[in-house]
Write a structure and sequence with these properties.
By secondary structure, the protein is mostly helical. It has helices at 4-33, 38-44, 46-58, 61-90.
């Protein structure tokens, strides 16, 4: 049973990697075909860039992932708050 755990982790990592590769390839295809705005693509890369920066600075990728999640939650909450306040004054 002890030998199955590392194999299962590797299988999950490979499946995750293939999924990310597929999303990347289809995303590039959509950008080339003009279906996605470049600004939208850049916004999608914000968490990835933030994770890379925090991972390199902190040296611990698990902590970097947690801080990335917290930061993205804060950014999303701020965006919703600003959007709501703007909508309140525009109507």
């Amino acid at each position: 049973m002890d030998t199955l755990v590392p194999i299962a982790i590797w299988i999950a990592a490979v499946i995750l990697g293939l999924g990310l590769l597929g999303m990347l390839l289809f995303g590039v295809k959509s950008i080339i075909n003009g279906k996605i705005n470049l600004v939208t693509g850049a916004i999608i890369l914000v968490p990835v860039i933030l994770l890379l920066i925090l991972g390199l600075i902190l040296g611990d990728w698990a902590i970097a992932g947690v801080w990335t999640l917290v930061t993205m939650f804060a950014l999303a909450t701020t965006g919703l708050l600003v959007s709501g306040i703007r909508g309140l004054f525009n109507n």
